[in-house]
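Lab notes, practical 5.
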Amino acid sequence: MIKRRILALVSTAVLMAGCQSPSSDPQVQAKEHEFGCMAGTVGGAIVGGLVGSTIGAGTGNVLAVGAGIGAGGYIGNRLTCSS
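Output from the prediction step:
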């Protein structure tokens, strides 16, 4: 139950980060892109870890969490850091 709430909150925060309005200042754009890139990577890792924690038990659970963190971080990075 708590994991679902955390997952919902993190997912909402990551989605809201993508709704920022663009700025015309190049320095501000660079900072926003950097923040969005970090937020996507960390958010993806958190969501992946939470999803992985629902799989297996014992050592299998630990491996699933690790794989979820890695895959979620990679996917979040690829989605938010492109271009």
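Observations recorded by the TA: The CA atoms of residues 16 and 45 lie 17 Å apart. The mean pLDDT is 79.
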